[in-house]
Specification:
Elements: H1 2-9, E1 18-21, E2 24-28, H2 29-32, E3 33-35, E4 41-50, H3 63-75, E5 90-99, E6 108-115, E7 126-133, E8 139-146, E9 152-155, E10 160-163, E11 168-177, E12 190-195, H4 200-217, E13 223-225, E14 230-234, H5 241-249, E15 252-256, E16 260-264, E17 269-273, E18 277-278, E19 281-294, E20 297-299, E21 310-312, E22 315-329, H6 334-343, H7 348-360, E23 364-365, E24 367-370
Parallel strand pairs: 1-17, 16-24
Antiparallel strand pairs: 2-15, 3-12, 4-5, 4-7, 5-6, 6-11, 7-8, 8-11, 9-10, 12-14, 13-14, 16-17, 18-23, 19-22, 20-21
């Protein structure tokens, strides 16, 4: 009775976001690996946002904002010693940016700003010239420009509304690169390709694809898979490093991933790999619902009894249990399990609990990742 029921319920998914990821797929090397010498670099700086309409820092609560403002004005030749400003049109912000690899001086990058004080909104403000430094303490870029804020807030005497974040924003193309990175691409003799998803099968397949290309072009192998993440490529003597990288990154390889089930308990999303297997297991799921209803009754005293009106409590409790059916499941993948349980009324949180129980029982032949 159970097997025909589950077979009729296959393919129907209700209330659950389900994705089945293929285990083997063709992809270019540039899509699955990155160049070790071409990594990004993080920049950070401290600056001021001006031009706010009364939504900036209160200078008494944020003394560093007032100090920064006075220092900036003194550098511009304005003496503010002994004076205090009460205007709330200035906010201290932390400025961050990502310096892309091989970036040249004069090119522009986006920057992100976030409030450090008690400012309520950065909308309409402009970032004043701010230097951005790297981990070595050297200045690599200078940022300035109008801050774009996607969130908004509005309030009145009795109500307020807010959507998104108003104390953080971006300055598109707001930073100009002033210093070139010390390492250059053609200074390195070899190439190191790092897999974004480490896997020995993918690394070996990548090395084999590069060696097949090198055998036809240069007459011998040039790639070696050192581990599950790194593939080393030796530069041939008569090859140009940039052209070699352009040819390698467009080679198509077969990627492989381990069997994995990813569960997001907050949203109820389950992502399942194609190679996931389930051993034969019996599953039973039942839910207990307890409903408590309070219906107090007002009791009036008898006429001329000099009594008082009283409230008599009245509580109604109903307990209801659903489910409890035992199903024997044994399938090549989890689509049968999720579709069957989802179709007979099990909610996403119940399916997540069942998957965790199957993993604990040793019947789920995959890695279970909880987010």
């Amino acid at each position: 009775m159970i097997r025909p029921l589950l077979s009729r319920l296959l393919g129907v998914v209700v209330g659950l976001a389900l994705t089945v990821a293929p285990a083997h797929s063709a992809a270019r090397i540039k899509d699955v690996a990155s160049l070790q010498a071409g990594r990004d670099n993080q920049l950070i700086g401290y600056g001021l946002v001006v031009g706010l309409q009364g939504t900036g820092d209160s200078l008494r609560s944020s003394p560093f904002t007032e100090q920064s403002l006075q220092s900036m004005l003194q550098n511009l030749g304005i003496n503010t010693e002994g004076e205090r400003s009460r205007a709330r049109n200035v906010a201290a912000v932390l400025v961050t940016a990502t310096l892309p690899p091989f970036a040249s001086p004069g090119s522009r990058i986006d920057v992100t700003v976030g409030s450090l004080g008690d400012a309520t909104s950065l909308r309409g403000g402009s970032l004043v010239m701010t230097s951005l430094s790297g981990a070595d303490g050297l200045i690599y870029a200078v940022a300035q420009g109008s801050v774009v804020v996607t969130g908004f807030n509005a309030q009145g005497d009795a109500a307020s509304i807010q959507q998104g974040v108003t104390t953080a924003g971006r300055v598109p193309n707001g930073a100009i690169i002033e210093r070139e990175l010390p390492a250059r691409f053609k200074d390195s003799g070899d190439l190191v390709l790092q897999l974004r998803n480490p896997d020995f099968s993918t690394a070996v397949g990548m090395a084999d694809a590069i060696n097949r290309f090198a055998a036809a072009r240069f007459g011998g192998p040039i790639a070696d898979a050192r581990d599950s993440q790194a593939v080393y490529v030796s530069k041939p003597k008569r090859a140009d490093l940039a052209r070699l990288m352009a040819d390698i990154e467009n080679l198509v390889i077969e990627t492989d991933v381990p069997a994995r089930v990813v569960i997001n308990e907050r949203t109820g999303t389950i992502v399942i790999g194609q190679d996931v297997r389930i051993s034969q297991v019996a599953v039973s799921y039942g839910t207990l619902t307890v409903q408590v209803t309070e219906m107090p009754q007002v009791v009036q005293p008898e006429p001329f009894s000099r009594g008082v009106t009283a409230v008599e409590p009245n509580t109604d409790i109903v307990a209801q249990q659903e489910g409890g059916t035992v199903a024997i499941l044994n399938g090549p993948n989890l689509r049968t399990l999720v579709s069957g349980l989802n179709s007979i009324g099990v909610k996403p949180d119940g399916i997540i609990s069942i998957l965790q129980g199957i993993k604990s029982a040793g019947a789920l032949q995959a890695e279970l990742v909880l987010q």
